[in-house]
Amino acid sequence: MEFSIRNLMRDTSLPNTEILILLEKVLQKPKTWIIANDLNVISNVLFYKYIDLRNRRIDGEPIAYLVGYKEFMNNKFLVNRSVLIPRPETELLVDVAINSLKPSNGCRVLDLGTGCGAIAISIYLMKSNIEVVGSDIDLYALSVAEMNSRKLCANIDLIHSNWFDCFDSKMGKFDIIVSNPPYIHSLDKHLESGDLRFEPRIALTDELDGLSHISNIIYNARNYMNKGAYLWLEHGWDQSSMVKYLLKMAGFSNVNSFLDLSGIVRVTGGSI
Ligand SMILES: C[S@@+](CC[C@H](N)C(=O)[O-])C[C@H]1O[C@@H](n2cnc3c(N)ncnc32)[C@H](O)[C@@H]1O
After folding, report:
1. Could you tell me if 10 and 42 are in contact, meaning their C-beta atoms sit under 8 angstroms apart?
2. DSSP 3-state assignment of 1?
3. 253 C-alpha to ligand 1 centroid (Å)
4. How far apart are CA 25 and CA 195, in angstroms?
5. Backbone angles phi, psi at 255, to 5 degrees
6. Which of 62, 64, 263, 271 is deepest in the core (most CB within 10 A)?
7. Phi and psi angles of residue 136, each rounded to the nearest 5 degrees, phi first
8. Which residues line ligand 1 at a C-beta cut-off of 6 Å?
9. CA 6 from chain center: how many Å?
10. How far out from the chain centre does Cα 83 lie?
11. Which GO terms of type biological process are on file (predicted)?
């Protein structure tokens, strides 16, 4: 049996936009070409490749894992199942970090729990004369960050560490520390639904109340911060007051929060 692109586009199990994204991946052609050539018949090999992706998508696998990339801050980041898929709301953390980076601060930035490197690389690409370090506990995640740094020509350093455990005085101090740590409560039902089912659990939850990694970072960060440096953290919709409290208890000043595009308090931080 022969299938044309048009036959595949008539499938009602997926939205047309998603069919096009999957076809783009399988045919290695831009969407405009696919639409203009929809009477083309596709080979059996490509047909079965497409059907595999289509069925996985119907079973709920995130489209970013199926096509192998996700756009973040206008760049395409490679992703696979070892890394969290970068979220649009995390772009706020990048914007907040960039805005708090004054020339007088110097320009050393640390991204803790870098995953695919989306935050670290975006900050590097947005600012000249900057030194950026990304760290993660997961070596597979670091290998994805390494691929992205090469692909996007971002000369960042990557370090394997359990938060600050492998940092020593040779590492020097930073002007901005950012982190989007795993902050979901281990019993949160969302972990068993939607995209989260497919993402690495270590990227999502601390296996406790969601605040243990955040407090660990807050209590240790100041040892690695220059005077006047900022720490910015992404957190859950109901965690901002607790994060503010922890920052104040740890001696941070200028403690402040920012709302994401959905009006949710998403980023909180302060300076030392
Ligand atoms: C929510 S993901 C954030 C990924 C990426 N920064 C982003 O925003 O898309 C959290 C990241 O923290 C890393 N992580 C989890 N526990 C860690 C630990 N104890 N030390 C360092 N990194 C850790 C995970 O491997 C994961 O890459």
Report:
1. no
2. coil
3. 25
4. 20
5. -70, 130
6. 64
7. -155, 155
8. 84, 86, 90, 113-115, 118-119, 136-138, 141, 162-163, 180-182, 202-203
9. 35
10. 8
11. methylation
In the reported structure, the alpha carbon of residue 7 is separated from the centroid of ligand 1 by a whole-number distance in angstroms of 42
| Mean pLDDT per 10-residue interval, the chain, length 272 residues | 91 95 97 96 96 97 98 98 97 96 78 98 94 98 98 98 92 95 97 96 98 98 95 97 98 97 96 96
Asked if residue 229 lies in contact with residue 177, where contact means CB atoms within 8 angstroms, the answer is yes
> Which residues are part of a known binding site for S-adenosyl-L-methionine?
113-117, 136, 163, 180
Tell how far the Cα of 138 is from the centroid of ligand 1, in angstroms. Answer: 8
Burial class (CB in 10 A: 0-12, 13-18, 19+), 104: exposed
Pocket test for ligand 1, best of 71, 109, 111, 114 (most atoms within 8 A of CB): 114
State residue 106's pLDDT score: 58
The structure tokens listed for 232 are 């910015």
Binding-site residues for substrate sit at: 180-183
Substitution site in 72, 78, 138 for ligand 1 pocket (most atoms within 8 Å of beta carbon) = 138
CA atoms within a 13 Å half-sphere pointing along the CA-CB vector of 68: 7
pLDDT (tens digit, 9 = 90+) per residue, 196-254?
999 999 999 999 999 999 999 999 999 999 999 999 999 999 999 999 999 999 999 99
The CA distance from 124 to 114, in Å, is: 13
- Sequence letter at residue 44: N
The closest-lying atom of ligand 1 relative to the alpha carbon of residue 162 is 20
